[in-house]
Amino acid sequence: MRSLEKIVFKPFVDGYYDVENQLPEYIMNLAEKRFESERARKQKAFTSIDSFMEYKRTVRRLFLEAIGGLPEEKCPLKPESTGIIEREKYRVEKIIYQSLPDFYVTALLYLPKGFSKPMPAVLFLCGHTREAKSSPIYQRTCIDLARNGFVVLAIDPPGQGEILQYWDSKTGESPVGWGTREHSYEGLQCTLTGSNIARYFIWNAMRGLDYLCMRSEVDPERLAATGNSGGGTQTAYMMLLEDRLRAAAPCCYITSRDAYIKTGQPHDAEQNIYGAIKNGINYDDFICLFAPRPALIGAAAYDFFCIEGTLQSYERAKMAYKLFKSEDKVSMVIGEHTHGLRDPLRRAVVRWFSKHLRGEDPRIQNDQIETEEPSLLNVTRSGQILGDKPHAKTIFHLNNDYLRSVKPSRSRIEDEDSLRLYVSSLREKLSRLLAFNPKRMKILPRIIEKGEVDDLTYEKIFFFSEPGIVLTSIMLYDPSLEGEAPTVLMLLEDGTNGAAGEEEKIKDFTAKGYRVFILDVRGIGGVRTRAINSRMFNTFHGTFFKICFDSFMLGTSLLAMRVYDVTRGVDYLNMREDVDRSEILLYAKRKMAICGYLASAIDERISRVHLEDMLVSYENLVATRLYDRLWDEEIVIHGFLRYFDLVDILPALHGREYLLINMRDGMGRLASKRCIEEYWINTVKEHYPVISDLEERIKCRS
Q: What is the largest CA-CA distance in the chain?
C-alpha cells in the first residue's frame, strides 16, 4: 500500500509525454500565427500613404481601447515651483503639476542659459530607477541637452522618484516595492477594470507637454521626447498617440514581440498591452507610425531587449519612412554595452535632436558632466508627494473612479422567464471573454496505472484537452464501489500533487460513495510547467506571471484556458460508464475556485458546486489598497468587471446545489459578514430576488 503522495505523477507523465514545456510552446504557437498575420497586414498597409494612414488609425484605436482610453478632459495643471538650482550653463527649476485633480507629477525643468528664446523642448521620460528624474545617469542626458539649447522636462513615473503610490510615512518606503513591483501590483487591478496602468503614465507625459507649452521659453512647434527602458516604453507610446511631437528617441526598449517572447523575460504591467499580439501591435509600430517625423532608435548591443528584434523593427521602420521619401528621418544607434542610457546613446540623442530641432550640430559635447546629489533635486520637502500632500490621489484611487464609470448597471431578475434570458446573455458574454477553442478534439484517454493506496483504488489518467495540451488526473474510489457512481471533479492549486494535503476531504467523499477525480489543468500537478526564467516560479516576474501576461497580449488569459480544461474534464467523465453523469459535483479551492465557478456557470453538466476559499469579489479586490498577492494574474480576465462581478455569475447556477465556503476578501482573510452582505447577499436581494436561498448556501468554517 502506498500513501497518496507516492502516486503523484513522476516526470514526463510517468515517462509517457514530455509536458514541461507544453504551455509555453502552446502560447508561442498561438503568437506565431498572429505574427504571420501581422506581417501580411503590414505588407499590405505599407503600399500607399492612404493605406498606411488607415492602418495608423486602426492601431491607435486598438491601443487606446486596450488601455481603457484616456481621460476626456484636461484639468488645470496648477503648477507649483518649489525651488531653483543655478548652474553656469543652465538652471533647474523644481516643478509639481496635476495631470488629473489631486494626481500630482513631480518634475525637474532644465532651462538653458545663453540661447535665444523660444527654444525647442524635450520631455524626458524615466526608466525603472529608484531616483527616476534625479538618477545621475538621467541627469547627464538632461544636462547635456540643456547645455545644447534644449529646455528639458524630466518627470517621475508613478511608483518611482517622489511619487511612490504606496509610500509609508513610518518606513519611508513602499510595502509593495518601488517601480516594477508597484506598476504590476496596481496593474492587476487595472486589468480587471479593462484598462492598463499605462494610461496614467501616458496622461502624465501628455500633460507634461502641456506644461512645456505654457512656458514662454519653449517653442511649442519643436517638441520631442526621449527616455530609456521604461522611459523608452513611455516615449514609444507617446510616439503613437501624441501629434505634437516633432522628434523622438526611444532607447533600450524597441525590439520585436516575436523575438522578445522567446526570451522568457517578463515585462511589468504597463509594458504588456492587452491584445497587442492578437491585434498585431508590435514594437516597430511605434517607430513606423511616427513617420515621417524624425525617429532615432537607441539600442544596446548586449541588452536584454534583444538586439535581433531591434534590427527587425528598424528594417520595418525604414519601409514606412521610404513610403514618405523620408529615409533620412529614421536612424538607429547601437551602443556596445549592456542595458542603460550610457554615453554612446546620450551623445546620439543630443546629436539627433540638435540636427532635427535646431538645425545644427551640438555646440557642446563631452563626457565631463557634473550631476547633483539626487536628494538635492527633491521637489517635495518630505521627498514624497504623499508626505507633502496626504490628500493626493494615487492610481489606486483613479482606477476605482474609472471602475465606477465603466461598470454596468444591474438588471432585476424576479421570475424564471427573465432568469432564462439573463443566463443566456451571461453565458454569451462569458464565452466571449473566455474565448474558447471552438474545435473540441476527440478525447482518447490513457489509464496508465491502476492500484490501491490507503484503502482506495486509484487510476492514473491522461488525455489531450486540445492539440499540444496534455492533462493529467487521478481517479480515487472505494474498492467495493461498482457501477455508476456520483463523481467529484476536484480542482486544487497544486493539482494531483496536492492530493495528500486533501486526504481527509477525499476520504470523506469516497466514504459517501463518490468517485473523486482530481484534474490537473494546464501548468500544474503532473503537467507542471518548467521555469521559463530565472525568477521564482510563482512570484512576481516569475513563470506564471510571464505566461499570464503573454496570454493577455494574445487577447486571452491563463484562467480562460484552465476553465476550458475543466470543461474537457467534464467531457472525459461523461465518457466513463462508471460515472453517473447526472451527479457530477465540482469541488474547487482557493485560486482554483474561480476557475471551477466559471466552468460551472457555462457547463450545465456540472450538477453541484462546492467552492472553498474563493475570492469574494473582483470589485472588492480592486477596492483593496493592499491586497494579498495570493490573488495574482492567474485569476484575472481582462475587463471582467466591465461585464459582471462574481456574484453576477450566480444566476447561472440557479436550480443546482452549490455551497460557498469560507469566502476570502482581497486581503486573503475570511470575508466578514459585512463584506459578504455587501458583495453577495444585498446584491442578490436587490437584483436577483429569484434566488431565495443564498444565505443557506454561504458557509463559514473556522
A: 95
201 in the same domain as 305: yes
Strand partners for 133: none
Q: Where is pLDDT greater, at 116 or 189?
A: 189
650: DSSP letter: G
* C-alpha–C-alpha distance, residues 105 and 185, integer Å: 20
Is residue 136 a contact partner of residue 102, using CB atoms and an 8 Å limit?
Answer: no
Per-residue three-class SS string for 326-395: CHHHEEEEEECCCCCCCHHHHHHHHHHHHHHHHCCCCCCCCCCCCCCCHHHHCCCCCCCHHHHCCCCCCH
Residues 268 and 378 in one domain: yes
**How many domains does one find in the chain?**
2
Rounded CA-CA distance 564/583 in Å is 20
209 and 169 in a common domain: yes
The CA distance from 686 to 696, in Å, is: 17
Q: Return the SS3 of 96.
A: strand
Using alpha carbons only, what angle is made at residue 414 by residues 408 and 415, rounded to the nearest 5 degrees? 125
Q: How far apart are CA 495 and CA 522, in angstroms?
A: 10
* In a domain? residue 425: no
Which cell numbers hold the place of 236? 514609444
Strand ranges of the sheet holding 103-112, from the earlier edge strand across to the other edge:
80-86, 90-100, 103-112, 151-155, 119-125, 218-228, 245-251, 295-300, 330-335
Q: How many Cβ atoms sit within 10 Å of the Cβ of residue 227?
A: 33
**What pTM does this model have?**
0.96
CA–CA dist 366, 376 (Å, integer): 24
Domain that holds residue 583: 4-29+438-612
Q: Parallel, antiparallel, or unpaired for β 456-466 and 446-453? A: antiparallel
Q: How far apart are CA 436 and CA 338, in angstroms?
A: 41
Looking at this protein, which amino acid is placed at residue 369?
A: I
CB 281 within 8 A of CB 63: yes
Residue 295 lies in a domain: yes
Query: Is the CB of residue 298 less than 8 Å from the CB of residue 345?
Result: yes
Summarised one tens digit per residue, pLDDT across range 296-313 is 999 999 999 999 999 999
Decide: helix, strand or coil at residue 617: coil
Cα 107 to Cα 683: distance, rounded to the nearest angstrom? 45
Give a yes or no: residue 618 inside a domain: no
Q: Predicted confidence band at 2 (pLDDT cuts at 50, 70, 90)?
A: low
